[in-house]
Structure formats: C-alpha cells, structure tokens
C-alpha cells in the first residue's frame, strides 16, 4: 500500500473549510467544517512515513501518528481510530484544541522541506467524530474488581484521563469536583467556538456509564478534608489544575469593570449551556455594546477577545507587552482573532485603568521595546519613555495567566508540601506527593500548561497509582501470611 502515501509532492495541503468571519462571529459554534471521507484520505496520504517521526516524538502522548495516517489513507478508518485512541483518552478533544502548530504539525518533516505540514489535527478530529457517529467508540469496560477504591480531586482532563485508566484496571473510582458539571476547563474555560460542549459531555457520560462515580458541587476543604478522603479511599489523586488569576498591578485595577479572564469565560460558557448567570444578565461579565481591552497574550487572552466579539462588543483590543513573534499563544488563534476584527496592540502594556472605582472608563498604556534577555532567555520588555497612549475601555479583562491555589490550607493538610511556585511537590518517577498514597498530576504539578499534557499526566498517574496499590496489596498479603 506504499503507493497510497508520499503524496505531499503532488497533493497540496488543505484544511477543512472555515466559516467566514462575519458568519462565525454571530454564534459560538465551531468554526471549521468536518473533512469528508475522500478529503481526509487524500490529506492523510501526504504523510511521508519518515523513519524518525518527529510528529510523534513532539506529541506529549506520543500518538502513533504515521500509522493512523496510513490507515486513514487506505480507508481503514476503524483501525485508524482504534490506534489513535490507544494512547489518547480524548482524541476528539485534542484534535480540536491542541496547538498542533507548536507540536505535531510544527515538527512535521515535510513542513520543514517546504511542502506544508500534514493536517494531523483535522484528520484526528475527523477520525474520532466518525467513530462516535459509527458507534466504534466502545463503552468503558471495568476490569475485574480489585476491592480497592480511588478518589480523584478534579474532573478536568488529568482527572478524567486517570479515572478512565484506573476503572479499566478494576478500581472503584470516585471523581470529586467543585463545579456542577464534569470537564473542568474543557466545559467552562474553553469557548464553544473551539470546543462545543456536547463533545465533552458525551465523553464524561461514557465514563459515568462505565461505573465512575462523579461527586459534583463537592469542594475538598468544605465538604470533606483531604484526610477524610484518604480514609475513604485506598489512594487519592489531586488533579485540581491552577485557577488563581494573576493580578493586574496598576492603579485602578480594582475598579468595577476590571474582571479576571476565567470569571468572564465561565459566565459565557454557563450562559451558552442554558444556565441563569446573574453577572452575565447584569452586564458585569457580558461584553455586549462595551469597549473591551484584554491584557495578555496567551491562549486564554485569545479565548477572551474572540468571545467578546461574539457577544457584540463595540470594540475589542488586545494589549501584549512583547511583539507578535514572541507571544505565548497559538499563532493560529491570533490569526482567527485578527480575521474577526480584534485589534492587537503589540509591544504595549497597561499603566493604569482610568475612571472611577465603580466604573472603568479606559486604559492608559505605554509602548514597550524588547531589551536584553531575562533569566528565561527571552528578551525582556522595557518601557519607551514618553510613549503613553489611551484606549477607551469599560470592560478590562485580565488574562495574565494562573497560579496554584493554596491547597495545603484549602485541604486542611499542612503536611502537603508545595514548591516555591506553589505547585504540589511530587516525586518525578512515582508522582506521589509528600503524603503516602496521595498522588498529583496535571497543572497542579507542572503549572499552567496544555490539555494534552494534562491527559498525559493523568494516564501516567493512573499507572503509578496502580503500581503503588499492587505493592500495598502484596505487602498486606505478606503480613497476613506471617
């Protein structure tokens, strides 16, 4: 079947059709159409089947990308899906929201040779959506009952990935989450135009149907301490993510109309899910008719500016202190935002929020330039003297990143050790925290990162917990025999 591959020299790179900006900004539906079967096969056939698959090595999950691309090109779609999901607990989600331009596609060999990368993410999305449509996604089957239970704190991607694997291994699994729906940032943080919520809900329904218990509206520290969860379960995984917003340290930052990015996105997603959201209805977390300034340059900032456009903002401006080439967010998301009318003020930072305490009226900003590299190796932004300017703004959204919450205090577990950054301190190999039998995974260990890394960490944590619990069972059996 080799003749079906290596078509990159004769077949141009094609992505699924994208809705025009003026059409898509009127709703929160995903912006890309699906590949049709023939187009998915054609695009998969562009894979060079290189001897060292850099796409695979640069995927945090090490998905076997060349093989499932070959199967797709050959029309072996069910086999291709089976292979793609063997290493990925949520391929339909990664196909939508992974920054492929920075990971698999950005390291595609034919991209480096000037032929344009294989559209890996679009093919992955096509395969997994096809699998759901055709009934190829099998129910979650629990392994033989081990008589042991695991508690997982956090129903985000790390917690869900760990829960699935542990259930397959035969453990009773309970997932605790403080929100009223499972999914974490997948359900409440990421807007529907990137990830429609039914995609997340059908995945969590599969887990619930497979016997995983979800205890929602449950906050550790309020409804139970960590010690109580440890007494209730044979092992506990902490996969809470990082949710504490970094603050805007300028005069006027406490004014009404200056809001954290996650509060704004959660309100929008809840409203889209049909919930009653008083802060949205009152206008506090609604951009309709308002002049919006978003401060930050990551993917969360892009989610905010594109949400504001869809809510009918009068204007939307993004302030970022470095230039376009040095922004941390996806270049693809920036391009989408520019198409949708967002104005980017590169090399600009807020100096103050003007107006009154009860109402923001604008942002005083200053032009920046890139100076010598800082400790991280990136050029440090520095102010340009006398280069201030003003922006009209009655809604200022802080999208400056996230830090860990104080979990030892929140969980009433002073012995739970953290790093100097506030993330949980976990052994690199065992993934266990300072508390025996308590493990940690995802952003609460590595800091704010990508969904695909959270899935990888969750799967690794499940295997680490399995080894620990097997060792505990063996030790208990030995003591009983003695």
Automatic annotation (TrEMBL):
InterPro entries associated with the record: DPD_II (IPR028261), FAD/NAD-bd_sf (IPR036188), FAD/NAD-binding_dom (IPR023753), GltD-like (IPR006006), Helical_ferredxn (IPR009051)
Highest taxon listed in the record's lineage: Bacteria
Keywords: 4Fe-4S, Iron, Iron-sulfur, Metal-binding, Oxidoreductase
Stretches that traverse the bilayer: none
Region Disordered, residue ranges: 1-21
Domain Dihydroprymidine dehydrogenase residues, every copy: 25-135
Pfam family, any one: Pyr_redox_2
Any one GO molecular function term: 4 iron, 4 sulfur cluster binding
Residue ranges of every copy of the FAD/NAD(P)-binding domain listed in the record: 150-458
Polar residues bias locations: 8-17
Gene3D superfamilies per record: Alpha-helical ferredoxin, FAD/NAD(P)-binding domain, NAD(P)-binding Rossmann-like Domain
PANTHER family, A to Z: GLUTAMATE SYNTHASE [NADPH] SMALL CHAIN, GLUTAMATE SYNTHASE [NADPH] SMALL CHAIN-RELATED
Name listed for the protein in its UniProt record: NAD(P)-dependent oxidoreductase
